[in-house]
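Students often ask why we bother encoding 3D structure as a string. The short answer is that it lets us treat folding as translation between two languages. Here is a chain of 461 residues written in the first language.
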Amino acid sequence: MENKNARTGITLMIVMITSFIAPFMIGAVNLAIPAIGIEFGADQSQINWVVSGYLLASAAFLLPFGRLADQYGRRKIYLIGVAMLGIAALGCALARSLAVLIFFRVFQGIASSMIFATAMAILTSVVPPQSRGKALGFNSAATYVGLSVGPVAGGFVSSNFSWRAIFILNVIICAILLALTLWKLKGEWKGESKKLDGGGIALCILSQFLLLFGLTDLTAGLLNQIGCALGVILLAVFFVYEKRREDPLIPIEAIGKNKVFVFANLATLINYSATFALSFLLSLYLQAALRLDGGVSGLILLVQPVLMAVLSPVTGALSDRVSSSVLASTGIGISAVGLFLFSFLTINTPVILIIANLALIGIGFALFASPNTNAIMSSVDISLYGIASSFLGNMRLIGQSFSMAVVSIITSIYIRDLPLGSYEYVEQLMVSLRAAFIVFAVLCLLGVFASLVKMSAARQK
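And here it is in the second language, the structure alphabet:
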């Protein structure tokens, strides 16, 4: 029993470090973007690919690596991913041109997809069902700590040293993680060995890359719009193709019959679509409308992720005793209320009310995230943990992209090319905020419906 508990503890620690890395790096790199742009003399559209290249590659390769991990071994794919992430980070740190930096950021995205297709699956394989919610709660907390610390650390490191030091830090973390996994994480976990679905892998990668490329900025021009449309068409082709195969990349038939899995993932997609752009919108509001500086704005925005980090272990543990569907439905409902309240923002809204509402949404998200993840991972057979973990990751990334696409469309309609900080800009920003928060609140209500359907399906099971 002691050895089993020790194994569970070391696995949780390894996966928590993994879950910390991605949001930490995303936040840190985002703060370093201006310094990178200045060094390479890049314009905004070019520098955006430092972030977009990573996200697109990470999303496009998640599902294929989830299936490969189930087939060839989750620990094996995870270790390769950690090693590749460290090598890619070193390449970023040594890059002498923007093109080389973007290449290694894409490489980082592919490596990340290998890690995140397997980490959650390994944790779920090791932790017993009666303790799974608690473990997933601690893992979610690590994600939110990374989300909180990343921007602060990125700003400090890039301003006091160099943006390259951020990637060197990533190399060090990857080296520690690799040594710890090789030393302490023994054994292997995989499902049935099947024939490799090369056509499904190609369709999966291409369709998601095109869809997410289009969603990065639907208003940018015809190229993005065509990319998004082609991505949707190829996704439909992919699902039809997979349904007809005897050895598919994704077992569409089995997944389609699993209503808990389907509606819990749909709730994840909707929740991230409704909440991801919140910090972006409030950052504009706090700095452009309320005239607060970046440091103060950052501290205000920290309220939500810090609260999520503190509460996630509690809500995760609760989901081991209380219905995860009840907790998740309550959480997404609370988020809907908070988003709707933000639609009443004015330039005279007291900051304390903004902080209180951010705390409310943080509580809602904490109630939703860990219990919903527990429901997803508990609804499938152990042989499908890799694909389930990857599917969940995909829903998050597509939801995040859709959230920013909604903001992009609304701001292009109301703000257009108004100069930042002008009276007209602030006036139209407030109109945009109201429209966006109403859309996001409605989306959250749809998420409540999806979560309730999941609850009904769980009871029928």
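Translate back mentally: Residues 195-246 form one domain. Keep this in mind for the problem set.
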